[in-house]
């Protein structure tokens, strides 16, 4: 019996070890068996554990790492097998690009052009029908233009101006893509009023409401020209926001045949002034004109406006420009006192009695100069001349609204 027990003990130890090994193997293989079971369950098993990849695929153009990317027409983000839920495009300063996901969730495009010479980061997320997300992050850099343009604008930031003041841009290069340039400039007013732009040629763009601004209006101009291709290969290089305020309403009406000017402020007549307008051979334009510049003393030389050597006065007092072609309302010290209110003797300007040196604040010209703002309106009527052209100065008010918005 002992030998038998001895054999039993000798054979029992390997059996125990084998059992432990089998137990160990079973324990280690339980996860594998469970995985095999989940695999046999198909997609349903994976969905329960949330490990299956989303069927949504996000595509971003331009490709990740792209350089010298065009500022418009290239950036597009799309999704297949799902819908876009989040799209963020921003520069390195955190300025986000405005855009909108399409109604079907299949695509996103920027609402405006991109800035030039700028690095952008894209983050886009899409979901498939099961709610599983897929994301894509890319980076690209826009082109650095060799040729650029800017717009010189008026009025200046922070100015208080008259009710006739338009927002006027003169561009340093002729613009062929006028739609893109105009879209990049936004003019708004508080209280709100419709404001439209109008092009004069290919290098000037003015904005105005249908009627004169209301007194006290706050106007904001957002300039986002950086990256706009104004003409082939020529890009805007300007981003700025400016604002100005409309002051009190002042509209002055000159009656050339009566030799008078009536000044109306906020609907009330505050002054009637005797004037002299253009002589029969050099009549004054009719129409609505806006004061665009003011000079306490300035030189006026007839040669610069087509009058040869007919006059050259180095110290014209209290001069305010009404047209690009040389129409001013200004002080006149060389005509006799009886001229004002009775005769038209000027070369097309509107003259008010004044003294040489512009030192006497009691003179009619000094009073009008001191009481006027850039942007105030001067209307001339009953002159034996044509109406001033809308682009001769800041005088777009001489164009009907229907024509302006074409």
TrEMBL record:
Keywords, alphabetical: Acyltransferase, Cell shape, Cell wall biogenesis/degradation, Peptidoglycan synthesis, Signal, Transferase
Residues of the L,D-TPase catalytic domain: 250-381
Origin: domain of life: Bacteria
Signal peptide: 1-31
Pathway(s) where this gene product acts: Cell wall biogenesis; peptidoglycan biosynthesis
Gene3D superfamilies: 2.60.40.3710, 2.60.40.3780, L,D-transpeptidase catalytic domain-like
InterPro entries: Big_10, LD-transpeptidase, LD_TPept_cat_dom, Transpep_catalytic_dom
Protein name: Ig-like domain-containing protein
UniProt keyword Hydrolase, yes or no: no
Active site location: 330 (proton donor/acceptor), 349 (nucleophile)
Pfam families: Big_10, YkuD
Organism expressing this protein natively: Streptomyces toxytricini (Actinomyces toxytricini)
């Amino acid at each position: 019996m002992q030998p038998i027990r001895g054999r039993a003990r000798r054979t029992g130890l390997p059996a125990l070890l084998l059992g432990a090994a089998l137990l160990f193997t079973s324990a280690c293989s339980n996860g594998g068996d469970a995985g095999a079971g989940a695999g046999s369950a198909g997609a349903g098993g994976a969905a329960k554990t949330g490990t299956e990849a989303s069927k949504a695929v996000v595509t971003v153009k331009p490709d990740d790492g792209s350089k010298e990317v065009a500022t418009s027409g290239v950036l597009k983000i799309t999704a297949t097998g799902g819908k876009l839920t989040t799209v963020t495009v921003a520069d390195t300063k955190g300025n986000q690009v405005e855009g909108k996901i399409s109604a079907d969730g299949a695509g996103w495009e920027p609402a405006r052009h991109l800035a030039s010479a700028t690095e952008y980061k894209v983050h886009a997320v899409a979901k498939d029908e099961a709610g599983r997300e897929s994301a894509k992050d890319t980076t690209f850099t826009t082109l650095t233009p060799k040729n650029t343009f800017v717009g010189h604008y008026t009025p200046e930031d922070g100015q208080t101006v008259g009710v006739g003041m338009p927002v006027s841009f003169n561009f340093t290069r002729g613009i062929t893509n006028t739609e893109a340039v105009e879209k990049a400039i936004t003019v708004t007013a508080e209280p709100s009023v419709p404001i439209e732009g109008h092009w004069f040629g290919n290098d000037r763009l003015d904005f105005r409401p249908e009627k004169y601004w209301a007194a006290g209006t706050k106007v904001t101009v957002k300039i986002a020209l950086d990256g706009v291709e104004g003409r082939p290969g020529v890009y805007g290089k300007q981003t700025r926001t400016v604002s100005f305020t409309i002051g009190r309403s002042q509209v002055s009406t000159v009656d050339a045949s009566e030799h008078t000017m009536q000044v109306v402020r906020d609907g009330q007549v505050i002054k009637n002034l005797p004037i002299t307008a253009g002589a029969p051979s050099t009549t004054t334009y009719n129409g609505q004109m806006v004061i665009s510049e003011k000079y306490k003393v300035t030189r006026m030389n007839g040669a610069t406006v087509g009058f040869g050597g007919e006059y050259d006065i180095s110290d014209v007092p209290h001069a305010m420009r009404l047209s690009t072609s040389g129409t001013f309302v200004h002080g006149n010290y060389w005509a006799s006192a009886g001229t004002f209110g009775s005769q038209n003797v000027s070369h097309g300007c509107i003259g008010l009695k004044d003294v040489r040196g512009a030192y006497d604040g009691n003179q009619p010209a000094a009073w009008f100069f001191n009481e006027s703002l850039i942007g105030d309106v001067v209307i001339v009527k009953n002159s034996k001349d044509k109406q001033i052209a809308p682009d001769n100065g800041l005088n777009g008010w001489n164009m009907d609204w229907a024509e302006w918005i074409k």
